[in-house]
Write a structure and sequence with these properties.
419 residues; alpha+beta; 2 domains; seven-stranded antiparallel sheet; five-stranded mixed sheet; 44% helix; globular
């Protein structure tokens, strides 16, 4: 299995400048390759430029511009071109799927924060000084950079990436390692229902409160963003010292909120994985849930619009983003895989409207956000607990159906059926 590690780097002033120049030059390469594709397709012949064609031009580009492009790793530049190719592949996939296409855009220097090295030892070297008590990672054109390695790296390092977050630099590793030993079985199964009032409710009647990290930091963020808005929009190289400090303060506050969400998601997922062998959750389409409502034109007043609940929906969207369901579910699946646990996503429709006692499904069964009262049998409970129970039952049904399909596809099953 592949596991990722992320460590803080502590570059010197000179190394920090070299890292910034690396990002700028890779950003320039990305934008130049994007412009070439746009120009080629805009031509009368509508020529399509592929990754292979652009990768073949790298040797000439490095020879023409040795000061900017020639000093960096060839494989990292190929990874940047491959990144653009993936953006176009996703663009065409969205067109075929009938979704909003979203044509690949040019990247500003502040929007380009990652450089990838596809292979350890090719333009980079993790733990380049193994006999030194201080861990260092070496990058071509930068040198040996100190790393704050807070935990050991297990397995063989496959890829290395540089990532900038605000004023901090990180190195991200992916390592291939053997499948770890699964955790001891607990015999427990659980269904979970994520929400806003409560971050999580399980089928056993337990609740995990929603910390609302974004709301708690909203006052500080609002003040910092107001202070930043007083400065005119300028490029990073043209900002004054006060302007740059205002930018860094906003970035620092957003980074704090993001790390708090991640910490909460990791701890909650780890608790579930340690206590349960099987976990069922709703297969949420978070992007669809957080869409803005469609405007309603006023037929009596051209150019005017009727109320469509946009303000209330905007508040709900902020709460959904603040809860971070998508990040939590991704982390839950990763931890479950490492621990040998089973996680299944089920259809979320009517999970909070179906009575777990008699099976009656109706909108009237949920008179309020928190209350469930079946109009058929009179069963009453917390609506989130009812939803988690229905999610668990649907998950167990899916698991049983999956096991049956696997058994029937096994050759031994067919041999015994024929007897």
């Amino acid at each position: 299995m592949i596991r990722a590690y992320k460590f803080l780097m502590r570059p010197t002033a000179g190394q920090g400048q070299a890292l910034r120049e690396m990002l700028q030059d890779h950003c320039s390469l990305y934008n130049g390759a994007l412009q070439e594709r746009r120009d080629a397709y805009g031509h009368v012949s509508k020529t399509s430029v592929t990754y292979g064609m652009q990768s073949a031009q790298l040797k000439d580009i490095r020879a023409v511009d040795p000061e900017r492009q020639g000093r960096w790793s060839f494989s990292s530049q190929q990874a940047t071109l491959r990144r653009l190719d993936k953006a176009f592949a996703a663009f065409f996939h969205r067109i075929k799927a009938g979704q909003t296409p979203g044509y690949p855009r040019f990247r500003g220097v502040n929007w380009f924060d990652t450089v990838d090295f596809p292979k350890d030892g090719d333009g980079c070297r993790w733990d380049s000084t193994p006999h030194d008590p201080v861990t260092r990672v070496r990058f071509q054109g930068v040198g040996h950079v100190k790393v704050n390695q807070h935990r050991p790296v297990t397995g063989k390092v496959k890829t290395v990436s540089i990532k900038r977050e605000g004023v901090k630099w990180f190195v991200v590793l992916t390592a291939e390692q053997a499948q770890p030993e699964p955790l001891a079985a607990t015999g427990s199964v659980v269904g979970i229902d994520v929400g806003i009032a409560n971050f999580l409710a399980d089928s056993n009647g337990n609740f995990t409160l929603n910390p609302r990290h974004g709301r708690q930091a909203s006052a500080k963020l609002e003040a910092a963003q107001q202070a930043l808005s007083r400065f005119p929009r300028r490029k990073a190289k043209d900002r004054t010292a006060n302007h740059q400090r205002a930018v860094e303060k906003v970035a620092r506050l957003h980074g704090t909120v993001r790390r708090q969400r991640l910490d909460h998601a990791h701890k909650t997922a780890l608790t579930l994985v340690r206590e349960h062998d099987f976990i069922a959750h709703e297969d949420l389409r978070i992007r669809n849930m957080s869409k803005a409502p469609t405007p309603k034109p006023d037929p009596g007043k051209p150019g005017a619009f009727l109320p469509n609940g946009g303000a209330a929906k905007a508040g709900l969207n902020r709460s959904i983003a603040d809860a971070g369901w998508g990040v939590f579910l991704t982390i839950l699946h990763a931890k479950a895989e490492s621990a040998g646990r089973e996680v299944i996503a089920v259809d979320p429709r009517n999970t909070s409207r179906r009575c777990p006692e008699c099976g009656h499904t109706a909108k009237e069964n949920r008179p309020t956000q928190e209350t469930f009262h079946c109009i058929s049998c009179g069963h009453s409970a917390h609506a989130d607990t009812v939803g988690a129970l229905n999610v668990l039952r649907a998950g167990l049904v899916r698991r049983e159906a999956h096991s049956t399909r696997l058994a029937r596809s096994h050759p031994v099953y067919g041999a015994e059926e024929s007897r």
